Amino acid sequence: LLEQYIVQPDRALLKQAVLAAVTDARRFGLVGAHTMEGSASWSILEELRNEGLNFRFTWHFPLDDLDSMISKGIKSYSGDEWLKIGGVKIFADGALGSQTAAMFEPYTGSRDCGILRYTDAELHEIGVKAASNGIAITIHGIGDKAVNQILRLFKDLKPYPGLLNRIEHVQSIRSEDLLLLKESGAACAVQPVHLANDVEMIEKHWQTVR
Question: According to the model, what pLDDT value does residue 57 have?
Answer without folding.
Answer: 97
